[in-house]
Amino acid sequence: MVRSHEPRKVKFAAMKLTDQASQYWTNLVNLRIECDQEPIDKWGRMKEELKGKYVPSLSHAPSHEQVASIHPRQQIGKEVR
To answer: What is the pTM of this model?
Structure first.
């Protein structure tokens, strides 16, 4: 069951999106209409969609060990050369 304020919250958030995020959301809404899919009218679902698009996956992030192994002076030397 969708809470009555959820669709309004999604519409308001969509109005506040800018640039590429706004274009992505508009395209997603239109694609769902064309494919006869239910609209995204839950706040959590909207956040999932946008995070999936714009928040990098942790599986692609360097591990803690990889980051810790980088010595700051080594990096500075590489940038200067």
So the answer is: 0.65
* Three-state helix/strand/coil letters over the chain: CCCCHHHHHHHHHHHHCCHHHHHHHHHHHHHHHHCCCCCCCCHHHHHHHHHHHHCCCHHHCCCHHHHHCCCHHHHHHHHHC
Greatest CA span in the chain, whole angstroms? Answer: 61
Q: Find the mean pLDDT for residues 34-42.
A: 96
Structure token digits, residue 70? 């980088």
Residues 6+ positions from 25 with CB-CB distance below 8 Å:
14, 17, 49, 50
Instruction: Please compute the mean of the pLDDT values over residues 57-71 and round it to a whole number.
Output: 68
Tokens found for residue 6: 């959820």
The pair of three-digit structure tokens given for residue 69, joined into one six-digit string: 């192994």
d(CA 40, CA 38): 7
Whether 61 shows a pLDDT value over 70: the answer reads no
